[in-house]
Predict the structure.
Amino acid sequence: MAPSPLSHSRRSFRRSRFTFALTPLAAALSFGAAQAQETSPPLPPVELRPVPALQPPPRGEAAKQLPIILRADSIRGRPDLETVAEGHAEFRQGSMLIRGDRLSYDQSDDLAHATGNVYIANQGNIYTGTELQLHVQAFEGFFLQPTYFLALTGGGGKADRIDFIDENRARLTNATYSSCRPDGGGAPAWLLSASSVKIDLEKNEGVAQGAVLRFFDVPILGAPILSFPLTDARKSGWLPPTIVPFDSKNGPSLEVPYYWNIAPQRDATITPVIVSRRGVGADGEFRYLEPGYSGVLAGRLLANDRLQNGQTRYAYDLSHGSTATAANDLSYSALVMRVSDDNYWKDFGSFDNNLTPRLLPTNLQVNRNWSRTSGDWSTYARVQQWQVLQDTDPASQIVAPYQRAPQLGARYGSLGWGGLDVGLETEFNRFTLPDGNLTPNRPTGSRVHALGSLSRTFGTAGWSLVPRVSFNAASYSLDQPLDGRTSASRVIPTVSLDSAWTFERDTSFFGRAFRQTLEPRLLYVNTPYRQQSNLPNFDAAVRDFNFESIYTDNAFSGIDRVSDAHQLTAGVTTRFLDPNTGAEALRLGAAQRYLFRDQLVTPDDGPPLTKRFSDVLLLAQTSLIPKWSLSASLQYSPDIGRTSRSVMSAVYQPAPFHTLSATYNFTRGSSEQINLGWQWPIYHSGDAGRSKLADSMAARSQCSGTLYAVGRVNYSKPDAQITDSIVGVEYDAGCWIGRVVAERLSTGLSETHTRLMVQVEFVGLSRLGTNPLKVLKDNVPGYTLLRADRAAPSVAPSYD
């Protein structure tokens, strides 16, 4: 160990650098150790090696045992009293690092005093200033004229003074904060200033008094007292307001949410709402996450809608579910969506988790599973009801589906008995019509059905042969006579044989090596004809004709219709794979069905299908061209010698945040649509575009950036008009992001709903305005967030 400078009282050492290491035990014995060194050979000096990331220090008594390291051009001191370091002085203990032109340390009081170019690094946070006085272990003291950087948020600022109360609490006087560095004019793009800021890490709370948020030196938000969380942990309080500047249905609106952190597993958000054209209302959301179950309850209330003659408008949504465990195989779920009136979805939008805005479900379900050596059993009970939102325009009205109240069923599956695969399902349903049904003459009643199958798989990894025997049985009890009867039953058997092969070979083209597969498949199906036009149709619908459905034994989904068939489906697929990674570079496929006899059971009980050869399905997908992804599926009709349906798409993605996509949908005699989507930089300020893609921190420091165009447009060629569109821009300045997005949705043949969303994201602080990110992610193919998404309560300040 290097000789202790405390053994040379009042002496000065003028060397290139001097290192001093002191532990509490060494301090007590330092004078005796200095005497012993006169007769002992000197030890090599302690070598300090820089550590790029300091680890959090131990707490309590363990912290007191950490060594204290001093480095300086000159060190002098008195044993057990004071040590003074001058010239590039450096003090280190654990994760604490202090530098300055002059630094003194009083051992008896554990007091460090630094002046001149003072620098502190502690747990990733950095402070610089003119003078520091700090009780090291208690982390108590003050810092004059400091600037600071917080590692957690990537931002910092200045203050007249920081008072460290302890390691968890501090107070800043006349403080500022921003994640932007000052530009050429000397001020950052956005700046939060406050006369006083109190920090409490134990409570995860910061409280600012006299807070003002300025954007390009223009005050945009202020509060006498502003509280905010210090970490990603949740905290109760008012969140930033949401402002919708334009809405064609409702006018400008304002929402001011309050977040309530009830418990670690429960929280709520209560949002007063002002809709300029309609009135005052409130939104609410309650979330819970308990062991074994979780859910969300949300609702909106507008008590007096001025545009609807004072009508009360409301909506509520309950989503609840449990999970089965090893100790309890019982699980249950509930999904309830309801609104006040038929026009609610037009005026206020639909539920985010509902794919069909005009059909609002109520689903209550209970499941129970059993695993036995003889097979796996599951039983279930469900109630399914609908709220149908009809339109006054007859051309826009929809057919309401049946309700099931109740639905009771059991399923069994087993793989055994000499390799036989056994499946059985039986179910009871009571079918009723919901309110809003426009065809009251549709039959209602009960149905009991049973589905069974028995199959056996033969083959190896390169080929398989699966013979299968199945049946579909159903018995009906109707409320109204149908064809003179109120009860009926039928049983329909099916025999099928499915055979598939896989061949492989190594090949190359365009200078690349590939592993090519050839995968032919044959499916033979024989189902006898049974008269079904005199039976009700509660849930059957014709399947879409595609590469998936062509290899099924029934042209209908559901139970009530089973297509008679004596047919053979033949298809082949070839794939080109990277031999090292297995990634698919190209896929080509073709399939066609041949009927050995006419098919008599057809959609809507129409005329028999007499055409022997079906349309040909063609498929192509490739990523062979760098930065391009191409796909096409065609349905070619040999009878007319033309394509009857096609879907083609192309996506160009040369780099992150650079995406162009186009999709063409065509159905002969029905529709023809073109869908375009994009996210693309259209303007670079300086080198911020490079910084954004290669070094986002550099862009953050400059607060100059890149302007991106984002959007999606759906154009209907037969109507010669744009049906739906989302068009906007995003400006990423590194330390702030601005978004302006306009959305136009069709809500009827001649009705549209347009709204404008404007948002400013202050990186490291919060977002203000209307959040368009979900709209962009859900609608723009390939859209990438300019910043990682965050939950608003975790990062947004609150205003108490």
